Structure formats: structure tokens, C-alpha cells
Amino acid sequence: MQTHRATAPWKRWLSVKAYGLVTRLYGVDTPPQTARRRFERFATVTRESMKAKYPNVSFSDHQAGELWIEALRTSPSPRRVVLYLHGGGFLFGSPATYRSRARRIAFRCDAEVYVPDYRLAPEHPFPAALEDALAAWAYVAALRPEAPIVVVGDSAGGGLTLSLLAALRDRGVALPACAFVFSPWTDLGGTGASMIGNEGKDVWMTRRHVAAWSRYYAGKSDVADPAISPVHADPTGFPPLLLIVGDQEVMLDDSLRVEVRARQAGVDVEVLVGRGMQHDFPLTLPWLQESREAWEVAAAFVERCASTG
Hints:
Blueprint: H1 9-23, H2 32-43, H3 47-53, E1 58-64, E2 67-73, E3 80-85, H4 99-109, E4 111-116, H5 128-143, E5 149-154, H6 156-170, E6 178-182, H7 194-197, H8 207-218, E7 241-246, H9 252-264, E8 269-274, H10 281-284, H11 289-305
């Protein structure tokens, strides 16, 4: 599936150029802790500032063992629950830096969104993030057993979403109603053809990013382990999936190869490829027509797969 509505070329060009300038703060040679501090400084949205702009937003705090989870809603009685696994290359990101994105998901999907503050690499390599995702799932599923639950993730969180689905299935745990992911990082080995084909077109990620950041997360583990790189996982039994990715990304094939495996396994899977679009485009460039269409597709997917009936 391709996006159909196109932004004016000049507006897309300016947006992508600005995006590229921002991403230089997180270059491949930037130490992880420095990148994390920068991201926290520039991306944090306080609860007070969000509530001032969106008075209907409300927050709540939750604790699953040592794992803090922030929940956000935009209406008094949302119809469903979203467990949102944020991106950041497994190196940075937090509920505070993903509040704007969580609010957009809550509004678009009529959901209460739970964002776990999962442990980050390199201090906490694999399997720390997956363990925390499992703990967050168990907590939310027990807290809201009456509501359809959707798992959403972007970038590293998108790959983590797929790893979570495989882990839940293998443990015999009830799966979510569906899952959708933005630009999922599913192959930490960087073996997809788009790693070369889109080198230079992607203003954010490069093969060097993938090589360096994957080692921070994998630690001493094999990056080809399906729990680390879910492109290699068996998706049999997965719930309906939606993958949204830009055609300019080096990680384009991280989505397209998951689609192939999912179809072969009989999974209900949709893929939306944004023409001329970059990594995480519905989240980072939401004003573009292509992003608006992607959000409409995501909302319709959730409505189809996760309604209360």
C-alpha cells in the first residue's frame, strides 16, 4: 500500500531539510549518554505545558515492580488501551520525551496510552527492554482486562513490539487485539537491501548508526537472535499488523521483509509506504499530507481490529 496524497514539493523539501538538521544532534559518533541528554533537553514536554495547550489531557502514574509507566488520555472514557513502546535506538527516549506522540496516538485511536520507561542501553543491554515490555504488558492487561489492547511502537520500539508479540505467543499469553508500528527496526544486523539502496536518501539513519547502536543494545548477544532482530522471528499466530514506513529509509526493508514473513504465516498484515518519506514520518512530520493519511489509515486499522463491539 502506498500513500496517495502528496505534499507540495517545496513544503516536503523544507520539512525534510529541517528534520535532517535536527537529527545531526544524534550522530553515530555521539556517545549514547550525550545523545540521551540532548534528546531529553530538546524533546521533553512537561505535563503542565501539555495540559495548558490541551486541557482535556490527563495523566496517571503506574508502577510495575521497578518499572514506571505513564498513562495519558484525551477523553474521560477512552474505548481502548494502547501500550506504546517508544523509539530511540534503545539508547534514549522516555515517557516525558514522547508525550506529544502519545497524545496524538490517544486522540487518533480513542485510547488511554501507557508508555513504559523501559531500561536503555548500553547500561542495560538485551534482554532488559524486552523484559520491561513483558512486565508492562502484564501490568496493563491485568489493570484493564475489559478493554481491547493495542501495542504500538516506533523505530526501536517498533522492533520491540514485534519481539513482544513473539514472546507473548511463546509463553502462551493472550495477545493484543492488534499492533501497528512506525518504521520498525527489525534487523539489527543491517542486512536489508535498502541499507545500501537508501544510503544518502535517509537524512536520519545510516548503516553506521545501525552497526554501532545495535552493538550497544545486543551487548554480547547475537544480533541475528530473533528476540533481538524480529525480522528473523516466526510470526505465526500474530494478531493483525500494520507497518508504516517511508520509502527513503535505510530500514525500509526491515518492514517489507516482516510483511513477507507475516503473509507467509497467514497473518493479517498491512503495509503503508510513504512516498518520499523519512523515518517515523507520521510522528516527526505530522503536518505533511502523507502523515495525515498515515494517521487516518492507522485509526481505521485500530477501529477495525480493536473495537469493543
